[in-house]
Amino acid sequence: MKKRIKKINILTFFIFGSIFFYSCGAEINEHIIAEEEVENISRIVLIQKESNPAFSYITDLSINSYNPNWSPNKEYFAFISEKNNSKDLWISDNQGINLSILNNNLGYVEDYHWSPNSKEIAIEFEYQNNSSNIYLYNLESENLLPITRSDKKASLGSWSPDNKWIVYTIENSIYVSNPKGVNEIYITEGQNPYWSPNGEYILFSRINNAINSLYIFEDVDKILKNVGNQKDEMELKKNNVKKIHTNESINIIEAEWAFGGNKILYVSDSSGNNEIYIHEIRNKKNSRLTNNEVDEKNISWSERNKSIIFTSNAHGRADIYKMKGDGSNQEIILNSNENFKRLDW
After folding, report:
1. Interval 70-125: pLDDT, tens
2. CA nearest 114: which of 150, 89, 151?
3. CATH of 106-243 given 2.40.50.140, 3.30.565.10, 3.20.20.70, 2.120.10.30
């Protein structure tokens, strides 16, 4: 199925007074794409340290725009916009000047995920009957191919780092599928699956008694190598689901892989407010990275910088901060009269 992309040149609006950039203390080595919320409407902001001024609005407040993400090669970014009862996927160059909208009649865009090679995007479309399916979009050919064909709700997870598999859920079951093939493999029960950068694990969550707990599925790479050998495949699945915490009261708000898949960043409200922690896969150690009485969240890891950006309400609004992977060198990057939400760099 081929869908046309409508290309639009947009002149961005520069931000002069409402956002303050702390260039002396914090060093930004990569552009940040961010979602900024203004009175329950979100817009997309591109933060470029080397430009003057350093910020530009990609969208304005006439439409609700959210969930911005860079392509892995940093040549493009994408986001979702809502207008006229429609949710569409927009794709932009890395300067935020040439934007394209994916025109389709498949349904509302609920989520998407860039492929590791930056040439494709997995997209979750929701229909009016609340069911959803996942499609593969190729940027060069502009083709859309179905990955799932369910009459239930299929929710997108992420790609394997080798670009060969996509993990997703159908209702409460986690599957992996070859997007260009025919294999669909059941993994386990859970939600929000997220493949590790080293390909060894799938991070996911389960909710029990209103507590959202984190789990990892180990050796997923070995299972995929044994596809077709039912005996070996079942043997590998027996004991490879591991819970991150033994404490049943620890509730997880969000999570992100770090250090190449050897550690997991997560936000928990177990201390009474949202704080950032890190879990080490090998020794099962959990360390707290932030410690105060306000909320921290919207974590985004940079493998290149071995650093984390996140939002904190330390000054009454959700401003953007940066710290090292061990929680050291915490410093504010910028603050605003509004709240920042989703971040990517």
Report:
1. 999 999 999 999 988 899 999 999 989 889 998 778 899 999 999 999 999 999 99
2. 89
3. 2.120.10.30
